[in-house]
Design a protein that fits this description.
Elements: H1 2-102
């Protein structure tokens, strides 16, 4: 009877060891799958972020182009006004000098 109890204890210990080993293997598989899934998720997020960055850069580049064209047009218009005023002032100055010299 004692040998039967010892056999049962040994069998139970063997079964416990087997189950423990299977549980460790399963836990390792779960961790490995989780790491793999996390890595895939991180890569997807990085790809999404890169795509969004590219989109924003393109959008900002278009805005910069529009702003630059607008600023250049305004500068050209202002320059035309200044040039016209300078020419008119130059003509008046020359006329005043001539009138003052010959008067």
């Amino acid at each position: 009877m004692a040998s039967e109890a010892v056999k049962q204890i040994l069998n139970a210990e063997a079964e416990a060891g087997k189950r423990s080993s299977e549980a460790r293997e399963r836990a390792d598989e779960i961790v490995s799958d989780a790491e793999r899934n996390a890595s895939i998720a991180v890569q997807k997020r990085l790809t999404d972020a890169k795509n969004e960055l590219s989109r924003l850069k393109e959008e900002n580049s278009k805005r910069l182009g529009e702003y630059t064209r607008s600023a250049e047009e305004k500068c050209s218009e202002t320059l035309r006004g200044i040039t016209s005023a300078a020419k008119a002032n130059t003509d008046k100055a020359v006329e005043a000098i001539i009138n003052g010299y010959f008067s």
